[in-house]
Design brief:
The protein is of the alpha/beta class and about 325 residues long. It has eleven helices and 15 strands. The strands form three sheets. Strands 1, 4, 9, 10, 11, 12, 13, 14 and 15 form a nine-stranded mixed β-sheet that branches. Strands 3-2-7-8 form a four-stranded mixed β-sheet. It is globular. It starts with a strand and ends with a helix.
């Protein structure tokens, strides 16, 4: 079977300002296409994979422009549905010093917001696929988008695909009435690979996180505490084969430490800690991690340590790339490792 990968989510237009200006400052904004699952798709395509991105965009110039952008990077968008009212957007204010970043979403009544079961021919889409990737973001947008997501994961499981899910909890999006914990907990029951950071696993499981406070690359990690924590996580999702945890400590807006853990078959693996200073753009760092892990799991299926090291190296490199997409090659990632 071909190693075709399918991702599903909402493509967005991100607006931001230069030079760390606040959203209320100045009169000009820059625009970038992105969105978590689209970011994963672009990274996977650049790493040489056969990748398809499934979404719903408006039948207008903006919808066409974002599809052109994805095609430019080698992503198949042949099953993207046209329709709905508008393209979803968000406004991003960069962190500066000890000031946190800010996000303002404008996704109400977007084309993807009104996605619904029956809109996407999943059996046709999955016919030649091996992996399906989705995230909890699609379940935070609307009830109909949630229903479409569950239709996708159920079909993927029935057809024998490996299902990868990034928890991707976005507090500001859960406004349509559903609660994040029970919805995400139910979604993750379909997953073979689960990705997330400490806070996202806490929302999905209800279990307190194990803190990560590394101030530099030489910091110690309490592997026993994480091992015991993962054992309890496994009880929540007994069908899951691999749990991948990305950990970041934001010392300042431009100084982060970053590492990752992998729990599989009762075994806990860790990788190095990167001390990243300066951080040029943290947007999409988690998506770069997910994409690189999926790529590495297909290329080196029996080498769990290498897949984790590769994923973290790719994520580290994304901090140096402006925009949502991780524009790096496999060769660059291996050299970083």
């Amino acid at each position: 079977m071909t190693k075709r990968i399918v991702t599903f989510g909402e493509v967005l237009l991100r607006f931001s300002k230069d030079n760390y200006r606040r959203l209320q400052q100045g009169s000009q904004m820059n625009g970038n296409y992105g969105g978590s699952e689209a970011n994963v798709a672009v990274s996977l395509a650049l790493l040489g994979n056969e990748i398809e991105y499934v979404s719903r965009v408006p039948a207008n110039q903006l919808g066409q422009a974002c599809l052109n952008e994805l095609r430019y990077y080698g992503v198949d968008v042949s099953h993207v549905v046209r329709g709905g009212e508008r393209l979803g957007t968000y406004y991003f204010e960069s962190a500066a010093g000890l000031r946190n970043s800010q996000v303002v979403y404008d996704r109400q009544n977007s084309s993807f917001y009104s996605s619904a079961p029956g809109m996407f021919p999943w059996h046709e889409i999955f016919a030649k696929a091996q992996v399906f990737h989705c995230s909890g973001i699609t379940c935070s947008v609307s009830q109909s988008a949630t229903d479409a997501t569950f239709e996708a994961v159920r079909t993927a499981r029935e057809m024998g695909l490996t299902v990868c899910c990034d928890i991707n909890y976005r507090k500001n999006l859960w406004r349509y009435g559903a609660e994040a914990h029970p919805t995400l907990h139910r979604l993750l029951q379909y997953s073979d690979f689960i990705f997330g950071d400490q806070g996202e696993y806490e929302v999905a499981t209800g279990m307190p996180r194990v803190p990560f406070k590394a101030a530099d690359a030489q910091a110690e990690i309490n592997m026993q505490a994480y091992g015991e924590w993962f054992e309890r996580v496994q009880e929540h999702f007994p069908q899951c084969k691999r749990f991948i945890l990305a950990m970041r400590n934001q010392i300042s807006s431009t100084h982060h430490t970053l590492t990752g853990l992998l729990y599989a078959n009762g075994q806990l693996l860790r990788t190095r800690i990167y001390d990243i200073n300066p951080v040029l753009d943290p947007m999409g760092v988690g998506d770069a991690f997910v994409a690189a892990y999926v790529h590495a799991s297909l290329k080196w299926p029996g080498n769990l340590q290498r897949t984790l090291d590769f994923a973290l190296a790719a994520s580290q490199l994304k901090n140096s790339v402006k925009g949502d997409f991780n524009l790096v090659s496999e060769e660059e990632i291996v050299a970083q490792m």
